[in-house]
């Protein structure tokens, strides 16, 4: 359906390696499986999703810049760039779109360098520590932010 809000789900470096990458931390679900689960959940919620991944900081910045014309909101797991990238912070700051920061792992239970995020202060909220399920939680939160479900989760 053309008038469904289109949500950008943007994944940063090394997330293409999910499934084989440190499964004790990140789980065994692959990024392709997460993409499929997101498509099903988006359909249920009344959203479209555009699911992307890049290992390159500048490409992530370009995708975020384009999102303001094409999307209704951004769910971003910026991977390690979360903790380093002023450029991604600035790109997110100039979109007028609602942003949800997402991490599979609970970054606050991990090394101190993962405790600071350049994204949190330009995000509506943060979801971390729920593994692949966090992507579905983020879509549910985004559905409310863009107005396709009410505060209580019922259809708007
Ligand atoms: C991550 C957490 C980051 O600290 C890490 O660099 C990642 C993945 C997560 O989803 O838990 O690449 O964003």
Category by helix and strand content = alpha/beta
CATH architecture: 3-Layer(aba) Sandwich
| Overall geometry | globular
| Estimated share of beta-strand residues | 15-25%
Query: What is the CATH homologous superfamily assignment?
Result: Dehydroquinase, class II
Mean pLDDT: 95
From the N-terminal CA to the C-terminal CA, the straight-line distance is 16 Å
Radius of gyration: 15 Å
Count of helical segments?
Answer: 5
Could you tell me the number of beta strands? 5
Q: What would the CATH topology be?
A: Rossmann fold
* Small molecules held by this entry: 1,3,4-trihydroxy-5-OXO-cyclohexanecarboxylic acid
Helical proportion? 25-40%
Count of discrete structural domains: 1
Order of helices and strands: EHHEHEHEEH
> For the largest beta sheet, what order do the strands appear in spatially?
2-1-3-4-5
* Most strands sheet: 5 strands, parallel
Entry summary:
The chain is α/β, with parallel strands linked by helices and 156 residues long. Helices cover 35% and strands 17% of the residues. The protein has one domain (6-145): 3-Layer(aba) Sandwich (Rossmann fold).
